[in-house]
Amino acid sequence: MPGLSRPTVTVRYWAAAKAAAGRAEDSVEARSVAEALEAARRTHGAELARVLGAASVLVDGVRTDKDDPRPLQEGAVVEVLPPFAGG
To answer: In this record, what's one Pfam family (predicted)?
Structure first.
């Protein structure tokens, strides 16, 4: 059915998100940022879910909202950046 397929996208984790996921990235099928993040939560559990709550998200290098309704394209990269501290 047209419009129902889910593109394969990369979810890339940085800093605390990478530590919580136990890896640098995952390949998931997702139509939206929210679907991609939900797939990450299901795969990696509560610790990653906690980090995602405070994280910023980039799609193909552009900051976006976690609930951005725009469809993801095949091969998109969703990056999870936790808050950074330091100076």
So the answer is: ThiS
**Non-local CB neighbours of 86 within 8 Å, separated by 6+ positions:** none
The model's confidence at residue 3, banded by pLDDT at 50, 70 and 90, is low
Here the tokens at position 54 are 């405070």
Q: What is the pTM of this model?
A: 0.90
Domains of the chain, each with CATH number or no CATH: 8-81 (3.10.20.30)
CA-nearest of 7, 38, 11 to 25 is 11
Using an 8 Å Cβ cutoff, are 79 and 62 in contact? no
* Cβ neighbour number for residue 86 with a 10 Å cutoff: 3
Q: Using an 8 Å Cβ cutoff, are 32 and 72 in contact?
A: yes
Tell me phi and psi for residue 25, to 5 degrees.
-165, 165
